[in-house]
Specification:
By secondary structure, this protein is of the alpha/beta class. 45% of the residues lie in helices and 14% in strands.
């Protein structure tokens, strides 16, 4: 008997190789997943200018980063945009959408919601910047499963709906973009509250790990999966904290570990500690 509904995810049309150059921009869920990629030695930048919750702020990050991506070899091959909300804050004085209110008085800002077309437009502009820099660039769009209590749970669902419709519009018109259903996995497969942190809003570490596994199944090449198997015991060895780090036994253990790391570096040229 099946006691849960599993989200069907078709195999992606492209594969992510080991130690790929990647970019993660978006909500705090992008932070969680992106940091896992960094731990697994992908060359990943994660929210370099802070968490960005809405499509306009994601575009702002890409625009700022594009100045450093002057050459194709510096631009990410795979980018992951995690959309949190369609709510934005405008500075009343200029009408400009701000990414961070920087603890300034609330009276200086006006809150409004982006519609489907506006969300899609910001995302398409960000995608165009990346694909202009790197024609083979791929963009994975996903909607954060984190609910926003400040909007009310119904309001949060409406916001997610706008984002989902915008994403659908974008991927239909951009062959370089695709959708990964993190939102659906959390709400359909992991709907039990044991998969949430104590605030009952954010996914638990176990939930993030499961979503990582589903992502791996969808996008990772066989070579990437082989690399991760080889890297796992080395990562555990390097993270080990001994009681007696000055002992000869531990020094010998680390010498052997570093020899294995060196061998892995030769096998996978893009790997680096």
């Amino acid at each position: 008997m099946e006691f849960r509904t599993k989200v069907d995810i078709p195999k992606a049309s492209f594969e992510i190789p080991p130690c790929e150059r990647m970019l993660f921009v978006g909500s705090c869920f992008a932070d969680n997943i992106g940091k896992r990629f960094q731990e697994e030695k992908f060359r990943a930048q994660v929210n370099p200018f802070g968490v960005m919750y809405n499509p306009a702020s994601i575009l702002h990050t890409v625009e700022r980063l594009s100045q450093s991506f002057s050459k194709e070899e510096n631009a990410p091959n795979v980018s992951v945009f995690t959309l949190g909300t369609n709510h934005v804050y405008l500075l009343k004085k200029t009408g400009e959408i701000v990414d961070n209110c920087e603890k300034r008085p609330q009276s200086l800002f006006e809150e409004r919601q982006l519609n489907v077309e506006e969300c899609a437009s910001y995302l398409e502009k960000a995608i165009k910047i990346l694909t202009d820099l790197n024609a083979s660039s791929r963009i994975i769009l996903t909607v954060s499963p984190i609910r926003y209590r400040k909007y009310g749970y119904h309001g949060s669902q409406l916001s997610k709906s706008i984002l989902l419709l915008a994403v659908e519009k974008v991927i239909k018109e951009n062959p370089s973009a695709c959708y990964f259903p993190a939102y659906e996995i959390m709400n359909d497969e992991l709907r039990d509250y044991r998969f949430y942190k104590e605030d009952m809003l954010h996914p638990s570490e176990q939930a993030v790990e499961y979503i990582w596994e589903r992502f791996s199944e969808t996008y990772f090449s066989k070579e990437t999966k082989d690399f991760l198997k080889e890297w796992k015991p080395l990562k555990e060895a390097l993270n080990h904290r001994p009681f007696h780090p000055e002992s000869d036994e531990y020094k010998q253990f680390m010498d052997k570990t570093m020899l294995r790391v060196k061998a892995l570096s030769k096998k996978y040229p893009n790997f680096a500690l």
